[in-house]
Amino acid sequence: MSLEQQVACTGAMVGIIKQMAAIDFPAYGSLYFDNVDIDSALKHSFTPGYVIGPHCGTTYWDCDAREPRYYNSAKPNRGPWFDPAAYCSALIDVGVSRLPPMDASVNEKPSFHGAVAEHIRLLNFGRDVASELIKDPRIREAAAPILLHHDLHKRNIYVLDEDPTTITSIIDWQSSSINPAFMHANDVPDFAAHISTPDEHYHSEDLPVGDNAELCNQAFIAGVRLLVPKLYATWELDDDVTRFFEYCHRTYRDGAGILRQVLMDLANRWRELALAGSCPYPLPTSEEWLAHGEEYKALEYAQELKKFVMSRLNTASDGWVPTDAWKETLENHKKLYNEFLQNMGEEELRKVWPFDTPCSVSAV
Known about the structure:
Layout: H1 3-21, E1 30-33, E2 44-47, E3 50-53, H2 84-97, H3 116-133, H4 137-141, E4 145-147, E5 157-159, E6 167-170, E7 178-180, H5 210-227, H6 229-235, H7 239-247, H8 251-254, H9 256-269, H10 286-313, H11 326-341, H12 346-352
Antiparallel strand pairs: 1-3, 2-3, 4-7, 5-6
Helix pairs in contact: 1-5, 2-3, 3-9, 5-6, 7-9, 9-10
């Protein structure tokens, strides 16, 4: 597409987001037909023919073999929820459900991932911090229930061949649900995002690059600011606040150091952010800062490595690639892994490699 077409397509996408955001919902959860066969206590009337029921996003369900749930300490909490405090409490419950029992036999995690007891400690503080944050009027304003597509990326958007500025359909709606707007604060479609890849040769030719990417990003931001105030309000929240909601339920997926860093940043800036009272998470001692710094440095490396590998292989964060590109991606994956092996020990690399190592993946 030409630059003009890319910007026009970005504007068309903002128009669709505007339509979705214009609907006012009385609760958080997912939209169902009113004759859905679920417990009537979990159905909240919305409009003729529809109800709001439990959240259908994978975050709340034990549906991923790579990430089992353990409900011994926190029961399933899938909504619907009628206020942002209840929604935030459920996020912490999700984080707890991801933790295996401390005596369970689980896949080995690198030391910087953190012990289960540390995850529990951080999540307990996280629950207290969430309850305080959600009292802030700015955060409550950015908590409006909003239904948006959860993955507005190029592979899910169809356009006319003869006029690529006309969006004809959007697919992959199955996990789209009603969330507080602040949960979408960092959601920018890949075609409207700043692109930064270590090697442009490996960047998808379907995405804008350089100045084109910058103009698409500016068009998206300007369009949301003008047409989608619910979503734009979340962009005015401080990054440290939105990062808390993004990571508070993901400690066992990302590593304890990520949430610890988020909590430290909030505790350090609580007054600067004009938040009421004091932060429930105590400021760390100098010794704790030092120990955390070493762990966090390793975590950051693992996160940056994942971004790099994703860009080189042109894959999604979960490793998804189109079927017709599978064999080529598999071969590129193996080559890339072997490149890193030249500078790292295999045991060390296995601990930080973001996807299955090549020897455990085969072509089909």
